[in-house]
Each structure stands twice: as structure tokens, then as C-alpha cells.
Specification:
- By secondary structure, this protein is mainly β.
- It has 4 domains: 149 residues, no CATH class; 191 residues, Pectate Lyase C-like (3 Solenoid), CATH 2.160.20.10; 183 residues, Pectate Lyase C-like, CATH 2.160.20; 281 residues, 6 Propeller (Neuraminidase).
- Helices cover 3% and strands 46% of the residues.
- It contains 4 helices and 79 strands.
- The chain has a 45-stranded mixed β-sheet that branches. Strands 26-28-31-34-37 form a 5-stranded parallel β-sheet, with helices on one face. Strands 62-65-66-63-69 form a 5-stranded mixed β-sheet.
- The longest helix is centred in the N-terminal third of the chain and has 11 residues.
């Protein structure tokens, strides 16, 4: 990493421990806020204050974004779980931090997993009852909604925890949340307890864990994007400081000491783990315990870690391979394990790389990643300075006057209307405590922001300086085309933290144009956050989802270092993040998301003329409902000297919901993630691998190792011009049939006739199979639970709808199954409350595929059986709604006779399995037969296996990779056909290819 990124770590004498001492109260007095609710408990450490705390939280909860609760200094004993409602923020206030106390042997906390404070959510799908109520509440209440990917703004800060003896199941906080939720300034004295934090989300800062079996225990976050932990220490955990999997764990300035294992990844699982400036002291077994080796989802990286008394830095669980330290104390300059891409245009290979050097003495801990706010005593209250914040009065002049005359300005809850740009001083500190309850906003058609002209800021910093903006919401209105919510020119020491860019819809009555107003133009405003003109600094916990803006986060014309932690940029029409003429920046745990109606044409990140940039734990996500292909997540224009570490490009999800058939959790995968992770437009090369641990892009001007997109000789394009094709099958003569779903077309192809159209009736076909009589069995997404029908290719207008029937054996029939399955088990707590062991992903896949199906669809001639997988619905019953099931999600169907083996891909593991087909659609004796899974797999008559995973990988019957077939576009579905059965048809989104095998 370039020097511009490195935090200064001047060598100093070694200290007995790298764990931080307990810190004092951050909010020594309560910030003035008339809308805040204060807890009126006893706080003597003996009286049960559970009800008093809960009453205050319930009083603060509102349907339009929650509110504030102040917990005064004291020791508050609880006997039941405190439920932190969605959008409520609890702040400890007073000269000493309040402490939530669990007395010795408190009933309900002695075993299992029992939360002292549980973040809760809302009825996301309006189903009326929770699908998976959290079983960690004491007492258990089946009506409680767990916090989920729609739980925003909830927070707990400046409150400590203390656990007495005899509470082996106690966890201080259950923290499954999404954007703008956080834990900050908390000491966890866990004693006999299980963990300080169970389940995680978004970001945490300034936490200090003492004792307990673990500091943090967690699995995948509810939104399924990274979790960032800043300026935190762990001391004296009995088993491991952190035990986790799939959390996208991102560590910055974290210290771990006096524990057997620093970070343990659960058996059978992966994670994208990235750490910078991590310190390990007296960690006896391993600093990091890595599981699920040789899997694309296992991505481990460290930058500038130091260790003392840590003989083994990394240990591989399955193989037992270790990466030892060097000497009694050492520095890990750089560490990477996972799929490494050697150069643009290449496919990846697994590698372990470690640059470790001994140290004569341990360095001092670096400065905090996040600057502290000034003491509350220095906060000038904007309301005392003539600012109204009533949502109607124009506060522009009063706010600007307050900013000009006071270095530190506090905005209590309210809506502050402005009509012109507010400009900060170089040393300004602008503070709010809740970005959904405190907002600066523009009305529509503000004259200063109308028409065509240069970008104009709602709020802007002075050039240079060390300004801070914290805890604030910004809304540029619906019809203000010149508006940019925040323009930032401040220097390297500046900070933007916990800032929400609102839009396009607000729930609290803020002025908006009427629905359908043609002047409300998506992609019609300037970038929401624009760092430019030498600007830089630290940006943490930012959420920028305004569809009306041209980008969520734009950086241009600066070489001032920038550090971005846990940025969520979403729902823009062309690009989420843009870098133009930028150097010396790092993005740790950035997340982008493209929605189905406002992001199908957007890329995740665009680089233009930029250099010396790091993207680590980068999650580029397209929602599962997406039904349009997009070529790439990242585009590079004349840019280089870029480091990509731990990249995840995906479009799969899970949700917990209820319908008429009951409640449960459901994993699903879209057919439309980005086709490539990266496209270098200048060099005309692609990165097909969508999940990888390491790629270095050379300096702009240097030639790429690969030249263009590789294509294997013999790969022939048969037809093109499609929107997106899939669902293919061949008949007994080897004729290929496939679907272009967007146009409701079923096509046929033979060498003699070329491309033909069988039908384009508006029946929403998804996948095909061909029965013995030559008719097509069609799986359709039409109807609430989907539909299955049969057509004769010679008389396609005659549609025979197949009704589901009870499952019965059909000895001579072929059973059809989805060719690729996503099976992960999101949302439901999967830890065993007795053993604290998780079932592995392979266990979950085996269980899922081993489920018998009670109903089935049988082709008219009885030769095909399609088990009736459960269909989940979201939205109306018409074509605007979405249907999900494993067969509907798959690129195509595969089939085999009862008792025969079938090949299919487990996309959640990225591995290919074979299994024995049962008469009821269940699979047994599942075996991994290839280390890649990708989009589809097919086995040839000679036993060779062909797997579509960026390119086509060919494996022998013994599982060894034999060769690769490179295709001009990303291969999606593979089907064997032709008159001799030795033509490999390769379906991509837009074209049909073939090659002989």
C-alpha cells in the first residue's frame, strides 16, 4: 500500500497489553432536545429497571424513523430483554456511563443465547406475524419482529454492560440491523456470558470487550453486505475474540489480546475478512483461523497488522497448513488468502501470500480512525440562536449566522428548511444525533437551485481545514436540478460521519412534488455527495440512496487522502460511485445496490483517470428481482495502480416472510448479477471472476497481460441479438429449444434449419424440458404459484395446462430439478443453543435437496415429472409481482430417472454436486464433484464434467481439471445436444454458442 494510505505508527516501547483502558462518558451532559425521551429508572444496581427502560424506548418509537432516548448515569439491573425498537437511538448521558447490569444467575440467561438488549424490526412484508421471531429474547415472545435489512437508524451509544456469574447464555446486544445503525462507546464486561455482541450489521466503533467466551459471535448480516468494526479492543475472551462467518468482517484499528484465537471462521464456512492496523497480543493458537479452503467466498486479507506472542498468524482448519509469525513480535505488511487474479483478463487461482518481517519492538497503537466529537459542553444549540427547525420557516440566514459565529453547532431533532447554500467554516463541527429525525432540506423549485447551471451545494465545506459533519440527514428536494446535497473540499483531517442522503421518498411529510410530476426526473440532479477540488478526509457510515441524483458518491480532482468506511451507495440510474482524476483513496467495505426499476442500467463504480486506489471488502449487489442483464460492475477508463481486495459481485438474497402456506426463510438467486466484475475499457479486457481475494491493476498506460477477451478455437456463434436466453432443453433428435423470456419467445435451433421461433404467446415461459413424445413441458412464472403447461412445437397455440397432483412414483419417468440452486439459510438463527455449533453450508444444502415434495407436475405422456417446489410471492398476482422458487430461479432444468445420478450446481458454495434422484424429487448421497459451481453444469457421455463459471471448466471423471473453454461472453447454461449428442450448446445472455466435445 502506498505511503499516503498508511497511518503513522511511530515505534514506541512495548506495553503490557494492547487492550485499551476503560473510557469515560462521551456525553457528560444530555444534549438539549425537546423531543428526546429520558429514562426514569432507579439506577441503583439492585432495583429491576427493565420496565422503565422499555417504556422510554417504546415512547420514542415512531413510524416515521424513530427517536432519541437518554439514559442517565446509573447502574440499571435488568431481568428481561430490552427491545430496542426500529429507528430508536439510546444515548447514555451523565458524568459516568450508565451500566446495564445482569445480576448473578438471572433466570433465562443461564444457557442458550439470551440477549440483554435486542434490536428489533418491523413487519417488512406486512404479513402480520414474524416469520422467525428471535429466540434470544427473555422471555421468548413469538410476536417480536427481528431486526432485518430494513431496520435503519437504531443505535446504542455510551452505555456499558456488566454480566454476573451464572449467565452462560448471556449476550449483551443482539445487533442484526442495516444502514445507519450502530454501537459506539461501549465497554462489555461479560464475565460468565457467551458474547458481548451476537449478530452484527452496518458499523460499530469504540467498543471494548472484556472476558466472556467470545467478544462477538455472528453470521451473515441481514442485508448481506459487509460489517465494519473501528477503533475496538478485545481482552481475555475464553475461546476467541471474534467467531463469525459470512459477515464481511472489516477491521480498522482493532486490538486483540490474551485469547486463544483472534478471529475464528466457523467450520464449513467462508468470509470476506479484511483488517487494517490490527494488533494481536498473546494469542496462543492463531491470529486467524481460516475455514472452507479453496472456495471463492473465502477471502482473507490484512494490511499492516502487528503481533506479539502469536506463534501462528494464520491456520487453515481443514488442511492444518499454517502461516507462522517471525520472531516474538512481527509486522504483517500484507497478507492475502483466496482466489488471486494474476492480471486483467485472466481467471483466478488460489494463493496464499504473506509479507511478514520481525520487529525489534511493538509500535504504538495508531490514532483512532474516527475523530472524537467535541464535549457536549462546547455544543451551541441552534435553537438558542434563532434557528426554528419547524419545517416551514426558512432557516438559511439563521443557520449560516450560527455557523459563522460558533465552531461547534448542534441541531436538535427537527426539519430545517433552507433556500441557499450553507457554507461551513474550516474548523466547523456540525452535529446531530439522528439522520432521520434531523434534516436539512430544500423545497422543490428553489430558485437558487433551478434550471441549468453549475452544481450547487445544499451544504458545503470550506476548502481545506478539518470540518466535521455528524448524524445529519440531507434532502435536496425532488425538483432542484443543480442541487448536490454535500460538496466537500475539506482536508485530510476532516470527517463526515453517519450522514444520510434522503430520497426520493420521505415518510415524515417533508415537502415533495406530487406523484407523476414529470419534472421529478431520476438521474436529474447532481451527485449527492461530491468530494472535489482537493477535498479528502474520512467518510464513515454514509448512506446515499437518492434515485434522483446522478451518483451517490463522486470524488473528483483530488490527491488529498480519503478513507471511506461502510459506504452504502444505492439506487442510481447510471453509477453509484464515480472517481475522476483521483489518487490516494481507500474504500473499505463499500456496498452498492441496484434496484429493479432504478438501477438495471447502472454500474457499481466508474474509475476515470485515477490511481493509487484501494477497494477492500467490496460488495456489488443487484437485487434479486432484477430481470435485465448488465455487463460489468466496475468500468475503468485510463486508470491503474488499483488494488482490489475481497470482491463480491452477486445478486442473491434471502428473506423471512409469511404467506398463506406458513412462515419461514427462503434463499434465492437472480439470473442477473453483473456478468463481469471489472471491465477495463481502455485496455479492452474483462475480469470474469465475480468473487476473488486479490487483483492488482497496473498503472495506466501499461499493457494488460491478456489481450482482449480470450476465445477457444472451435467455439462458434450460432445466433445472437437476444435480450437474455435460458431455460434450454434438447429433444431426442438433439434439437435445441430455449427461451428469451423478455419477449415471451421459445426458440428452436438445428444445424439444418438454424434459428426458428416456436411461439411468442404471452405466457411467461421460464424453463423447458422435452418429453418422449416430443412435446415441450414449460415452467412459467405466470400465476401466483407459477404454472406448468405443455405445448406441441408443431401446434404451439394449443396450450395444455398441467395441474399439480399428489406425488406418486413414476418408475420410467425422468425427474426434473433445478440445475443450479442457492441454499444458504439466511435470517433464521442457525447456531445450536446447546452446543453453539452451526450446521455447515453443505449440511444445509443436503437437507434442502433431500426434502421430499408432496406435489408434482407430470407431462401428458407420463415421461417427465417436475416436483412442485414451494413458490414464494412478493407483490401482486399479476405480471408486476415476483415469484421465487428453486426451479424458477435456475438457468435451466436437469433431469434423471429415479435411482440415477443428476448433476447440479450449489451456487451458494460455488461447487458442483451429484446426487441420487428419489421418486419424490428428493436427492440423496450428495457428493462434491467439482470445486467450481457457477451457473450450470453438465456431464458428457464420457464422464467429463463441464461447468459454467465465468468460462467453461472441464473436469475429468476423477474430478481433476483438464482444460478450459473460453467463450466471447459469460457462459450461463450448458446443454449437450446435436444429432450425436456431442455438441455443447453454450447459452449467454445475448448469444448462443456451441462447440464440439
Amino acid at each position: 500500500m502506498k505511503a499516503a494510505f498508511l497511518v503513522c505508527t511511530m515505534l514506541a516501547a512495548a506495553t503490557p497489553s494492547i487492550a485499551a483502558a476503560q473510557t469515560g462518558s462521551v456525553y457528560r451532559t444530555a444534549p438539549p432536545d425537546a423531543r428526546a425521551v429520558t429514562v426514569h429508572g432507579i439506577g441503583d444496581g439492585r432495583t429491576d429497571d427493565s420496565a422503565a427502560i422499555q417504556r422510554a424506548i417504546d415512547a420514542a418509537a415512531t413510524p416515521d424513523g424513530g427517536g432519541l432516548v437518554f439514559l442517565p448515569s446509573g447502574r440499571y439491573r435488568i431481568t428481561r430483554s430490552i427491545l430496542l425498537r426500529s429507528g430508536v437511538r439510546v444515548f447514555g448521558v451523565g458524568k459516568t456511563r450508565p451500566v446495564i447490569v445482569l445480576a448473578d444467575d438471572t433466570p433465562g440467561f443461564g444457557s442458550g443465547v439470551a440477549a440483554m438488549v435486542a434490536f428489533t424490526g418491523e413487519d417488512q412484508f406486512r404479513s402480520g406475524k414474524p416469520a422467525v421471531p428471535p429466540r434470544t429474547t427473555v422471555p421468548f415472545d413469538p410476536t417480536i419482529f427481528d431486526a432485518t435489512q430494513t431496520t435503519f437508524y437504531s443505535a446504542l451509544a455510551n452505555v456499558d454492560f456488566e454480566v454476573g456469574s451464572g449467565n452462560a447464555g448471556a449476550v449483551a446486544v443482539r445487533f442484526r440491523v442495516a444502514q445507519h445503525a450502530y454501537l459506539r462507546h461501549i465497554d462489555f464486561h461479560m464475565g460468565s456470558g457467551l458474547a458481548g455482541v451476537y449478530q452484527v450489521g452496518n458499523a460499530c466503533q469504540d467498543l471494548h470487550f472484556f472476558g466472556g467466551r467470545y467478544g462477538i459471535v455472528t453470521e451473515k448480516t441481514a442485508p448481506m453486505w459487509p460489517f465494519t468494526l473501528l477503533d475496538t479492543t478485545f481482552e481475555g475472551q475464553r475461546d476467541a475474540a471474534i467467531r463469525e462467518h459470512e459477515a464481511g468482517l472489516t477491521l480498522v484499528n482493532v486490538g486483540i489480546s490474551n485469547t486463544p484465537v483472534g478471529i475464528e471462521i466457523d467450520r464449513g464456512y467462508s468470509d470476506s475478512l479484511w483488517g487494517r492496523d490490527v494488533r494481536f497480543d498473546n494469542v496462543s493458537n492463531a491470529a486467524v483461523l481460516i475455514s472452507n479452503e479453496n472456495n471463492v467466498h473465502t477471502q482473507i486479507g490484512f494490511d499492516n497488522a502487528v503481533a506479539r506472542g502469536v506463534p501462528v498468524f494464520a491456520r487453515m482448519r481443514e488442511s492444518g497448513v499454517t502461516v507462522p509469525g517471525k520472531g516474538a513480535q512481527y509486522r504483517v505488511r500484507d497478507f492475502s488468502y483466496g482466489l488471486k487474479i494474476g492480471a486483467l483478463g485472466q481467471m483466478g487461482a488460489y494463493a496464499t501470500e504473506a509479507s511478514i518481517v520481525p520487529l525489534a519492538r511493538m509500535p504504538a497503537a495508531p490514532a483512532p480512525a474516527i475523530r472524537p466529537l467535541p464535549p457536549v459542553a462546547e455544543w451551541a444549540n441552534a435553537r438558542d440562536l434563532g434557528v426554528r427547525g419547524d419545517g416551514e420557516s426558512d432557516d438559511t440566514a439563521a443557520l449560516q449566522r450560527a455557523i459563522d459565529t460558533h465552531r461547534v453547532l448542534y441541531l436538535p431533532s427537527g426539519r430545517y428548511r433552507i433556500s441557499d447554500t450553507l457554507t461551513l467554516r474550516p474548523d466547523s463541527v456540525l452535529i446531530a444525533l439522528h439522520p432521520a429525525r434531523t434534516r436539512l432540506f430544500l423545497r422543490d423549485d428553489e430558485a437558487a437551485f433551478a434550471g441549468v447551471g453549475s452544481p450547487k451545494a445544499l451544504l458545503q465545506s470550506a476548502k481545506g481545514g478539518a470540518a466535521i459533519v455528524s448524524g445529519l440527514g440531507l434532502w435536496a428536494g425532488s425538483i432542484n436540478p443543480r442541487a448536490s446535497a454535500l460538496v466537500w473540499r475539506a482536508g485530510a483531517a476532516s470527517l463526515v460521519d453517519d450522514v444520510r442522503i434522503e430520497g426520493p421518498m420521505l415518510r415524515d411529510g417533508t415537502t415533495q412534488a406530487k406523484p407523476g410530476d414529470p419534472r421529478v426526473r431520476p438521474d436529474g440532479q447532481q451527485a449527492s455527495i461530491w468530494v472535489t477540488d482537493g477535498g479528502g478526509g474520512t467518510f464513515s457510515g454514509i448512506w446515499s440512496p437518492n434515485t434522483l441524483a446522478s451518483a451517490g458518491f463522486r470524488v473528483s480532482n483530488t490527491t488529498t487522502p480519503g478513507h471511506v468506511y461502510e459506504l452504502s451507495a444505492e439506487h442510481h440510474y447510471r453509477h453509484e460511485i464515480v472517481l475522476e482524476n483521483v489518487a490516494n483513496w481507500e474504500f473499505l467495505a463499500p456496498q452498492t445496490e441496484q434496484e429493479v426499476r432504478d438501477g438495471v442500467n447502472a454500474i457499481s463504480t466508474g474509475f476515470h483517470d485515477s490511481r493509487n486506489i484501494l477497494f477492500a471488502n467490496y460488495h456489488s449487489y443487484r437485487v434479486t428481482r432484477t430481470a435485465k442483464p448488465m455487463d460489468t460492475a466496475v468500468r475503468l477508463f485510463n486508470s491503474g495502480d488499483l488494488r482490489f481486495r475481497n470482491v463480491l459481485v452477486n445478486a442473491e438474497s434471502g428473506f423471512a416472510s409469511c404467506d398463506m402456506k406458513g412462515c419461514g426463510t427462503f434463499s434465492r438467486a437472480s439470473k442477473y448479477p453483473f456478468e463481469n466484475a471489472i471491465t477495463d475499457v481502455t485496455r479492452q479486457v474483462q475480469v470474469r471472476e465475480r468473487n476473488f481475494a486479490q487483483l492488482d491493476v497496473p498503472a495506466a498506460g501499461a499493457a494488460a497481460t491478456a489481450s482482449g477477451v480470450p476465445v477457444t478455437p472451435g467455439v462458434e456463434k450460432l445466433a445472437d441479438g437476444f435480450y437474455s436466453i435460458a431455460g434450454a432443453a434438447v429433444d431426442a433428435e438433439g434439437k435445441l429449444y430455449f427461451i428469451d423470456r423478455f419477449y415471451n419467445r421459445i426458440h428452436g435451433w438445428t444445424r439444418a434449419a438454424g434459428l426458428t421461433t416456436v411461439t411468442d404467446l404471452p405466457l411467461d415461459p421460464v424453463s423447458l424440458a422435452v418429453d418422449r413424445s416430443g412435446k415441450l413441458l414449460v415452467l412459467s412464472s405466470a400465476g401466483r404459484d407459477g404454472t406448468v403447461y405443455s405445448i406441441d412445437p408443431k401446434q404451439p397455440a394449443q396450450v395444455h395446462v398441467i395441474a399439480p397432483t399428489d406425488t406418486t412414483p413414476h418408475a420410467s419417468a425422468t425427474t426434473l430439478l433445478p440445475g443450479n440452486v442457492w441454499a444458504n439459510g439466511e435470517f433464521d438463527d442457525r447456531i445450536d443453543p446447546k452446543t453453539y455449533v452451526y450446521p455447515t453450508l453443505a449440511d444445509f444444502f443436503t437437507t434442502k435437496m433431500g426434502e421430499a415434495k408432496a406435489r408434482q407436475y407430470v407431462s401428458p405422456d407420463g415421461s417427465l415429472v417436475l416436483p412442485a417446489f414451494r413458490v414464494w410471492n412478493q407483490g401482486p398476482d399479476d405480471q408486476q409481482g415476483w415469484r421465487w422458487s428453486d426451479p424458477l430461479d435456475a438457468y435451466g432444468l436437469v433431469g434423471a430417472a429415479t435411482g440415477s445420478r443428476v448433476v447440479l450446481a450449489n451456487s451458494s458454495e460455488d461447487r458442483t454436486y451429484s446426487g441420487l434422484v428419489g421418486a419424490d424429487g428428493a436427492l440423496s448421497d450428495l457428493k462434491i464433484i467439482a470445486p467450481r459451481g457457477g451457473e450450470s453444469a453438465v456431464q458428457g457421455p464420457d464422464g467429463r464434467l463441464y461447468v459454467a463459471d465465468g468460462q467453461v471448466f472441464v473436469y475429468g471423471a476423477d474430478g481433476k481439471e483438464l482444460r478450459r473453454i473460453d467463450t466471447p461472453e459469460r457462459p450461463l447454461q450448458l446443454v449437450l445436444g446435436g444429432r450425436d449428442g456431442r455438441t455443447l450448446f453454450i447459452l449467454t445472455h445475448h448469444a448462443l454458442y456451441a462447440t464440439a466435445i
